[in-house]
Design brief:
This protein is α/β, with parallel strands linked by helices. The protein has a single domain, classed as Purple Acid Phosphatase, chain A, domain 2 (4-Layer Sandwich), CATH 3.60.21.10. Helices cover 24% and strands 23% of the residues. The protein contains eight helices and 13 strands. The strands form two sheets. The protein has a seven-stranded mixed sheet, with helices on one face. A six-stranded mixed sheet has the order 3-2-1-11-12-13. The longest helix is centred in the middle third of the chain and has 13 residues. The protein is globular, with a radius of gyration of 18 Å. The protein binds fe (ii) ion (2 copies). One fe (ii) ion binds next to loops.
């Protein structure tokens, strides 16, 4: 029996941000405006406090492995990534951990190329790799294997929150899946297969090479897809075009939506407990349970 804790989209920020001249001409300025004046900052006003409470509770709930599926920050600044890693207590909890970036963490070309996320979350990114390339990487958890895929990309336009894995990483993922021993294979990435209503995400918010990834995941024997990006939690036993179930963790820290998942896996059955934050008691409480079969359902 394996117990996983899965959380996402904590969107931590810091009072002082290291603005550069280029940021007045890229997506960061509009993202900041959104945060400051269009309500996003208010929705994440308690992000750091809630994330700290979550980690305090996870630390004592017999979890074997932590999974963070991206969007650590609001704007992808180094100070925000550093603070998010501190809040999530990377390496400090003595629970093995996996993290991948989200689109906010790669907010600009400079942020994506900086390696800040990979540096501050290095304790969450150990694993087996192909050709010594950083992504994808695989971490074993008993008889289970977690496979981290990076789909975050820097986007030019303010309205574009889409992502892509790219041909080279897809090819490495295909090889990695083929090399892994048989057992439960769990793919972790920031982007969903579909929305809560089962429809595909619009191009400006979704994964641009979703079809190519689904082909590889189906052929490679993936048993489960874990993601964030959408801030409300949901799950499907069989989303369209996939031979496996999918779980969206939602945002762990957005006011009103704040929750994370605990998954207990026994053989090929996953039992999930979604725990949501109660601002009155400042603790998480049980909110929803559901089960998924991890057997391939073609
Ligand atoms: Fe997000
Ligand atoms: Fe996102």
């Amino acid at each position: 029996m394996i117990r996983l804790a899965h959380f996402s989209d904590i969107h931590v920020t810091t009072p002082t941000l290291e603005w550069q001249r280029e940021d007045w001409f890229n997506k960061r300025l509009t993202s900041w405006f959104n945060m400051r004046f269009l309500g996003r900052g208010k929705r994440f006003a308690h992000a750091e406090e809630v994330a700290c409470r979550m980690m305090d509770e996870i630390a004592v709930r017999n979890i074997d492995h932590l999974i963070f599926s991206g969007d650590a920050t609001a704007l992808g600044f180094e100070s925000e990534i550093r603070r998010a890693a501190e809040v999530l207590r990377g390496g400090e909890l003595a629970i093995p951990s996996l993290a991948i970036p989200g689109n906010h963490d790669y907010c600009t070309e400079t942020a994506a190329a900086s390696g800040h996320f990979e540096r501050y979350f290095s304790a969450w990114q150990t694993g087996r790799r192909i050709d010594e390339q950083h992504y994808p990487f695989a971490q074993p958890v008993g008889p289970i294997c977690l496979i981290a895929v990076n789909a975050a990309t820097a986007n030019r336009w303010a309205w574009d929150a889409g992502g892509a894995i790219g041909i080279a990483q897809l090819e490495r993922l295909k090889r990695l899946l083929a090399e892994l021993e048989t057992g439960i294979k769990i793919l972790v990435l920031h982007y969903p297969i579909c929305l809560k209503n089962g429809q595909r995400e619009p191009g400006y918010h979704g994964l641009r090479d979703l079809d190519a990834l689904l082909d590889i995941a189906n052929a490679g024997g993936v048993n489960l897809w874990l993601h964030g990006h959408r801030h409300g939690a949901y799950h499907f036993q069989k989303p369209a075009k996939a031979n496996f179930p999918v779980i969206c963790a939602g945002s762990a820290t957005q006011t009103g939506l704040w929750s994370y998942g605990e998954y207990t896996i026994h053989d090929t059955t996953l039992t999930a407990l979604r725990r949501e934050y109660d601002p009155t008691t400042k603790r998480f409480r049980d909110a929803e349970t559901f089960s998924l079969s991890l057997s391939h359902n073609r």
